[in-house]
Design goal:
By secondary structure, this protein is an alpha+beta fold. The protein is built from three helices and five strands. The chain has a five-stranded antiparallel β-sheet, with helices on one face. α1 runs antiparallel to α2 and α2 packs antiparallel against α3. The longest helix has 20 residues. The two termini are about 25 Å apart.
Length: about 150
């Protein structure tokens, strides 16, 4: 895997799982992501794990709410590289691309991507043959995990 500058990235771990496009599936995606990160050395008490849980929750909820196609699942993929954690959530709706909404006073919804934009080091959307993938990245320390294992932005 290479980044935009053409530098090679070293793959450490990958987790991929499909979930039903339901609220229950979105909750399960967050829970399993946190269990997987714990197994990778990032307990829930770390900043990386907390931020990743938040990003998975927001992206999975958006996949269920805005990207749902009846009978189709959404997919969560976590990719741990030496310098970052990449979170990808794929759904079957290619026609509905996410966009950060402007602030609306006392709005009850529309904050999900604003949260993703504030927490993630970078995020974006890539098209697939069927649907799209919304991804977000969190930077992390290289080397052995100590403390939070996370580099704040």
């Amino acid at each position: 895997m290479t980044d935009a500058s053409g530098r090679a990235r070293t793959l450490v771990r990958v987790f991929t799982q499909r979930f039903t496009s339901t609220c229950r599936g979105a909750r399960l995606a967050r829970q399993l992501a946190l269990v997987e990160l714990h197994g990778w050395g990032f307990p829930e008490s770390t900043a990386l794990s907390a931020d990743a849980g938040l990003l998975v929750a927001e992206l999975a909820a958006n996949a269920v709410r805005h990207g749902r196609v009846p009978g189709r699942d959404f997919e969560l993929k976590l990719t741990l590289l030496e310098e970052l954690l990449r979170i990808e959530v794929s759904d079957a709706r290619r026609d509905r691309r996410p966009a950060v909404q402007p602030h609306a006073y006392q709005a009850e919804s529309g904050y999900g991507l604003r949260i993703v934009d504030a927490v993630a080091a970078d995020w974006g959307v890539t098209e697939r043959i069927v649907g799209k993938t919304v991804w977000a990245e969190l930077r992390r320390r290289t080397g052995p995990v100590s403390g939070t294992g996370y580099l704040p932005l």
